[in-house]
Amino acid sequence: METAIDVLDERDRRLVAALQCDGRLPVERAATVLGLSARTVRRRWSALFADGIVKVVMAPQLPDGTRVMLLRVRVLRGRLDAVTKALAARDDIPFIDVSAGGDEISAIALTGSGPRNRLVFEQLPATSAVTSVTAQTVLHVFRDAADWRLDVLTARERAALAPRGRPGSAGPLDATDDLLLAALADDARASAASLAARTGLPDSTVRRRLTALTARGALRTLVVVDHRRLGLAVDANVWLQVPPDHLDEVGRRLAQHPAVHGALATTGQANLHAAVWLPDLEALYHFITEDLAGLGIHSVDTVLVGTAVKRPGHLAYRSGSRPSSSRARPNSNRLSMLGPAISSASSRTLG
């Protein structure tokens, strides 16, 4: 049985959208821009954080030389849980969706720079539960989850709420910067005092470094919230086949669409991937038949997500009836080359 999801009211959705503009946004500035009292902003944010509805984390940063691959894994229905659990336990798989039909796993794999990935070329094909594997390398990111903005603020409000800095305006980070960013990983709104206690750095150093990191655009945050709480009940992956001379234009157009929280150019016949959140199936139909019309797209393959098993910063949530035993684990940027056995009953493993 599906569990009813309470949609946040307009005020709370606007407060979530304000955090998307700047994960460390001060209460006073949010109150001024949104036309609320500071007391209201502080009280509502505290409630959203305390109830686990909203979490602000640092956007994941990949190690230099990391390649990203999109995997589509077809699985025998009776073995879906086992394969999903094995993939979710891997540090090099930060993102897993299971289709509403229950027969396909969509995943993101982080790989090295070598020509062959052991998971893709050896482990998955050798698993008796897997019937097919499609792997596409990401060539260009037009939009990722940290770039997505809930469409409830005006352009003027977003500009006023954005961090005041110039991304990329300074040189590389040093060890102290890295230490602070690591301390902010799971709670990007941690106070300077708590960061000082956690890192052992002087409070004055923490405050000065945070100001500098903000000014140079190095504090890139991600607001973690169940999209259904925002009134976006439909989660879908859309695979598009686009002619090469239209690929960049279509990718940029999709990146500006309010429903698209991920837009990636990839290798393969379906060379553009879009991840979308929409209010209902009628809105998805409108997106496919109208918003994508006239862009020169040759074909569209739409897969509804039934269960988001693992996403950066998220715990697993259920929007369908399976898989019953899947659980997410916190994401890590470490690349693990070995995965656990699918189950004791399986003759093949992913490790």
Automatic annotation (TrEMBL):
* Keywords assigned: DNA-binding, Transcription, Transcription regulation
Asked whether the keyword Transcription regulation is assigned, the reply is yes
Every copy of the HTH asnC-type domain together lies at: 173-233
Q: Looking at the record's lineage, which domain of life comes first?
A: Bacteria
Q: Name one Pfam family in it.
A: AsnC_trans_reg
Segments carrying the region annotation (Disordered) are: 315-351
Q: Does the keyword Transit peptide apply?
A: no
What is the official name of this protein in its record?
Answer: Lrp/AsnC family transcriptional regulator
Q: What lineage is on file?
A: Bacteria, Bacillati, Actinomycetota, Actinomycetes, Kitasatosporales
